[in-house]
Automatic annotation (TrEMBL), chains A, B:
GO BP annotations listed: AMP biosynthetic process; ATP biosynthetic process
Protein name: MutT/nudix family protein
Domain spans labelled Nudix hydrolase: 41-175
Cofactor list: Mg(2+)
Pfam families in UniProt: NUDIX
The UniProt record lists the keyword Hydrolase: yes
TM spans (from-to): none
Molecular function as annotated in GO: bis(5'-nucleosyl)-tetraphosphatase (asymmetrical) activity
Organism: Bermanella marisrubri
Keyword line: Hydrolase
Length: 183, 183
């Protein structure tokens, strides 16, 4: 594997309330120079939760996605607040989004969103041993909460309103992990 | 399910060579008003390919990801050129990135990247019946091509240099699809 490219220069070229674009001049080990652009996130990271109830069903939310201008079914997720651990963030977001906390939270994998263009990562957490507890979230309207049998995520993935790549990845990883735990 | 929010107003608030940020004022059906920001992509879409060779191995690439400032293993992917079909784009990108074309290309799923904040989608294509053909790409350095047994993607997903959520999702979906075809 080649040596990592040298970062010759970088600076912020555009920003808004949510997005910051950085330009990076890179020199590869073969001498080739290129200018890249990437999104750099603010904040302390993000978590996505596969919460599994006692009936071996996954907890899903249906919410409006402004990016795709449509309602979409996906996994609960959210930003990690400063000073929070990943497990604390996962538990808080679960209480806000599906009205349950979890007594057992396991870190599965840190995923990247788009390694070429975005610095952002998201940590996938499996949440088990759920108990009802609701925290106030900041959603503009109540989220619809759905459940889906973990054993049948293939049919969930076929739904045209279930499209988020990260959520599909998290579900498959969590299913494999869960089945191994059960053995 | 609630009626979709009304888009009261939208405009471009930041842009660079690669990124365009749009601000959207939305009114939800309960009267709640919010301002969202999303990334709107240029171009004609993108494809991600699960190319499977005669040994039932998946073709992977190792490339530098400027977003995460590190080398990463992932699936071949790329932008659809104007006027190209998804299959044509998939075949061209395979020739550029792994040095193979495919006689059989099947569309599996359109995925979203981040439904809340990005309009972008990517189409997952399974490519079979591969034949060697190299096209010149625009990479700054040659990509390293790897193969991995389709039957063992769990161990690939455990690698810390294999992190892209969309690629993990595409691999699991393609494996399930392939196993069903084989029956």
């Amino acid at each position: 594997m080649a040596q990592k490219p040298k970062l010759l220069h970088s600076h912020i070229i555009a920003s808004s309330r949510l997005f910051t674009v950085e330009s990076m001049d890179l020199e590869f080990s073969n001498g080739e120079q290129r200018t890249y652009e990437r999104l750099v996130p603010g904040g302390a990271g993000a978590v996505m939760m596969v919460a599994i109830n006692a009936h071996q069903e996954v907890m899903l939310i249906k919410e409006y996605g402004a990016g795709i201008e449509d309602y979409t079914v996906t996994l609960p997720k959210g930003a990690v607040d400063l000073g929070e651990s990943l497990s604390e963030a996962a538990n808080r977001e679960l209480k806000e989004e599906i009205g349950f906390g979890a007594r057992e939270i396991t870190h599965l994998k840190q995923m990247s969103l788009s390694p070429s263009y975005m610095k952002s990562g998201i940590d996938v957490m499996v949440a088990l041993d759920l108990y009802p507890e609701q925290l106030e979230g900041d959603e503009p309207e109540p989220l619809e909460v759905l459940t889906w049998p973990l054993a049948d995520i293939e049919s969930l993935v076929c739904r045209t309103d279930f499209t988020e790549g990260r959520a599909i990845a998290a579900l498959f990883m969590a299913r494999d992990w869960y089945l191994k735990q059960a053995i």
